[in-house]
Design a protein that fits this description.
about 160 residues, 6 strands, 6-stranded mixed sheet, alpha+beta, Nuclear Transport Factor 2, Chain: A
Length: about 160
């Protein structure tokens, strides 16, 4: 018997229509978030700096102060600490534009002994005529002699 595309779709419909008790369906559990405490502290310090309107301190709290820092955002790829800070200052020229920042940390994935990937979401609560903004991020952290720093940031 030749198996055609129509047979495939009929099989899919039949399989999908077969009932399964809800307690038999495997559930995906949220990954544990055992983030290093120093990274958690840096992120809280970043939120505080942002919410006080201090972009310089926001950057200093966690970002690698180097020309090799990589930031990927809506405008594409940026290299360097100074250029990343300049882009933040252009996009958020005053505390009103900055709003109130809230991070939600979703997953920490160690990448060996000296690196890790942190995935999370961000929310900017803004007042007046400015809309709230939100998105997600993935940060690659590196453990350096001075402590953990962000070496790559992809925020959308």
């Amino acid at each position: 018997m030749k198996f055609s595309i129509s047979h495939f779709w009929v099989a899919c419909v039949l399989l999908c229509s077969c009932g399964t008790a809800s307690n038999d369906v495997p559930r995906l559990e949220k990954p544990s978030l055992s983030i290093p405490s120093s990274i958690d502290q840096k992120l809280k310090a970043q939120e505080l700096a942002w919410n006080e309107g201090d972009l310089g301190r926001f950057m200093q709290e966690a970002y690698w102060e180097d020309d090799q820092l990589m930031f990927i955002g809506s405008r594409g790829l940026t290299y360097g600490y100074d250029q990343t800070l300049a882009n933040y200052q252009k996009s958020y020229p005053d505390p009103n534009a900055m709003g109130t920042l809230v991070f939600e940390l979703l997953q920490w994935k160690p990448l060996g002994n000296a690196h890790g990937l942190l995935v999370g979401s961000w929310l900017l609560k803004r007042s007046g005529e400015l809309e709230n903004l939100d998105g997600h991020f993935s940060l690659i952290w590196e453990k350096r002699p001075e402590g953990w720093v962000i070496i790559a940031d992809h925020s959308s």
